[in-house]
Amino acid sequence: MAGMRRLELAEALQLGPGWRHACHALLYAPDPGLLFGRVPLRYAVLMQMRFDGRLGFPGGFVDLRDHSLEDGLNRELDEELGEAAAAFRVERADYRSSHAGSRPRVVVHFYTKCLTLEQLTAVERGAPRARDHGLEVLGLVRVPLYTLRDGVGGLPAFLENTFIGNAREQLLEALQNLGLLEAGSFARLKISAPPP
């Protein structure tokens, strides 16, 4: 991930007071639906349109003096997603990775959380009533996990958007490691699969 180095969680937590910590979560759910009655959706994966016009994941900065990473992340999810976020809790078991950038001195902790489709849909419906909707968060979007026959529509077109920080790489790594795409999808997308 360009400009960022991967850290083990213990190493990230040992960084000095000059470092800020941010936590973000990819929320997903199995989705048996079909697009146009023939294209399997497989999973619903949420991202958000941020205040700066870039795509990212729900979450934000946490204060380790007052909270654990997960407490801070769940507070951020409540602010950005609303009441439906109370139906689940992101835990340490959902942790995926940490990456540090030197300018600014920020460590980004990434989590993935599998929900039921009903929970995920409730998050989508309730998000417009969340505290930060229209401010930090301009809306939620589902990531299209398919490629249309033209080879462009769906995920290839989605990946052409502008992402904040390393969110694009986090998305691709999670899709690969969680098995959310059909086998061979990375080759068809003409992008290299992230390391497992």
UniProtKB/TrEMBL annotation:
Domain Nudix hydrolase: 18-168
Annotated compartments: Cytoplasm; Nucleus, Nucleolus; Nucleus, Nucleoplasm
Pfam name, any one: Nudt16-like
Coiled-coil spans in chain: none
PROSITE patterns reported for this sequence: NUDIX
Gene Ontology, cellular component aspect: cytoplasm; nucleolus; nucleoplasm; nucleus
Stored CDD domains: NUDIX_U8_SnoRNA_DE_Nudt16
Keyword Magnesium in record: yes
Requisite cofactors: Co(2+); Mn(2+); Mg(2+)
EC number per UniProt: 3.6.1.62, 3.6.1.64
Enzymatic reactions: dIDP + H2O = dIMP + phosphate + H(+); a 5'-end (N(7)-methyl 5'-triphosphoguanosine)-ribonucleoside in mRNA + H2O = N(7)-methyl-GDP + a 5'-end phospho-ribonucleoside in mRNA + 2 H(+); IDP + H2O = IMP + phosphate + H(+); a 5'-end NAD(+)-phospho-ribonucleoside in mRNA + H2O = a 5'-end phospho-ribonucleoside in mRNA + NAD(+) + H(+)
Keywords of this entry: Cytoplasm, Hydrolase, Magnesium, Manganese, Metal-binding, Nucleotide metabolism, Nucleotide-binding, Nucleus, RNA-binding
Gene3D superfamilies: Nucleoside Triphosphate Pyrophosphohydrolase
MF GO annotations: 5'-(N(7)-methylguanosine 5'-triphospho)-[mRNA] hydrolase activity; chloride ion binding; cobalt ion binding; IDP phosphatase activity; magnesium ion binding; manganese ion binding; metalloexopeptidase activity; mRNA binding
GO biological process, one term: nucleotide metabolic process
Family membership: Belongs to the Nudix hydrolase family. NUDT16 subfamily.
Oligomeric form and interacting partners: Homodimer.
This protein's name: U8 snoRNA-decapping enzyme
Organism in which the protein naturally occurs: Sus scrofa (Pig)
Gene name tied to this protein: NUDT16
